[in-house]
Design brief:
Shape: globular
Radius of gyration: 21 Å
Strand content: 25-35%
CATH topology of the largest domain: Jelly Rolls
Helix content: 25-40%
Number of helices: 10
Length: 355
């Protein structure tokens, strides 16, 4: 879907606009959508894309339904640190700037693809990573699964590998594995029970790390809005390497974990209780010395809410706590209020204010 050099031409504006309109009003296969996304996230033809998306937005926003507005507000809230229309400013130390992405490029994820998972997908993976997955064969068909907040989904991959996919997660994989490796792409958190195949290693690719295994059970947490990626091993053996750095890979054994720190770009190996990191597969949340920010993020996904709070007030607090699927949101917050001095909260629909 190469467009050539049309940056300053009227022809380019018309050409890009035509592509945008096609994707706004038609259904396409997953393969075509991925090819479109590869082109869409590139900087090429940026001005034409912005102009076309602004026109599409103007013509669509008047007829958008309540679900469109809700989904759009959720994503914009996570980018800017607040929820549009909520009337409450979040203070999480997150800049309100869009970090180089125009408003229209973000809005287009909803306008063109039609559901929130596509935004998460384009945010989590570089266009090169997407292209490397879809280019090996034009006949390669892809399947993607997005799990909304408060839900958990179980999947069986084409090779028999069992996957539990956590809330707010997207998994992309081919309908059949070809080539020398079985590759899947993950944004979010998943637990894998890999079917052994000595001829084809199983590889989980995220935006920051690659996890390679033969036959094993492991958990990968790689949410795009988290500051780290965690790979935890329950059985077998896996090898973890950076997707962006050239330092040596790390192998781990059961009850070991590798943490990739996005800020320092380092891989750190440590011993953990692996079972506590897969408690979510049973509908529970277990935290052993987790930061306050980590606990809140997981509660947001667990209960499908947006939490606004002053991070500076709770920075440095590490929590040891367990929540079960039988506890309501207010009951979980009551537990935190008992553990943390000066912790108060207010729930208004899908918005929680901590003060």
């Amino acid at each position: 879907m190469g467009l050539g050099n049309r940056e300053n031409s009227n022809e380019g504006n018309k050409y890009v606009g035509k592509i945008m309109r096609l994707f706004a009003v038609n259904e396409f296969s997953e393969y075509v959508i991925l090819r479109f996304q590869h082109w869409f996230v590139q900087n090429r033809d940026k001005n034409q894309k912005d102009n076309s998306l602004e026109n599409l937005w103007d013509s669509t926003i008047g007829t958008a339904d309540g679900n469109f507005e809700k989904d759009f507000n959720r994503v914009m809230g996570r980018i800017s640190g607040s929820t549009i229309g909520a009337g409450v400013a979040a203070n999480k130390g997150v800049s309100a700037r869009l970090e180089g992405k125009s408003f229209w490029m973000i809005a287009a994820s909803f306008l063109l693809i039609g559901f929130i998972a596509s935004y998460i997908f384009t945010a989590a993976f570089s266009s090169d990573a997407i292209f490397s997955l879809i280019m090996p064969s034009d006949r390669l068909e892809l399947t993607d699964h997005y799990v909304k907040y408060s839900d958990i989904t179980k999947l069986i991959l084409p090779d028999g590998t069992e996957v539990s996919l956590n809330s707010g997660s997207t998994l992309i994989y081919p309908k059949r594995f070809i080539g020398k490796k079985r590759m899947v792409y993950l944004s979010g958190e998943a637990n894998f029970r890999v079917t052994k195949d000595n001829r084809k290693n199983f590889v989980v690719k995220t935006a920051d790390v690659y996890v390679e295994a033969l036959g094993t059970t492991f958990n990968v947490s790689a949410y795009s809005d988290d500051n780290k990626v965690e790979t935890t091993l329950l059985s077998g053996r896996v090898r973890i390497s950076s997707a962006t750095e050239s330092f040596p890979s790390i192998e781990i054994t059961p009850n070991e974990q590798v943490v990739y720190d996005k800020a320092s770009r380092r891989l750190i190996k440590r011993v953990v209780d692996a079972n506590s990191y897969i408690s979510w597969t049973q509908g529970h949340l277990v935290f052993q010395g987790a930061s306050f920010e980590t606990v809140i993020k997981k509660l947001e996904r667990f209960y499908d809410v947006t939490v606004n709070y002053d991070l500076s007030k709770y920075k440095g607090k590490n929590l040891y706590v367990k929540f079960t699927n039988s506890e309501s949101l207010s009951e979980a917050l009551d537990v935190l209020s008992e553990m943390i001095s000066g912790f108060n909260y207010k729930i208004s629909g899908k918005i929680v204010i901590i003060y």
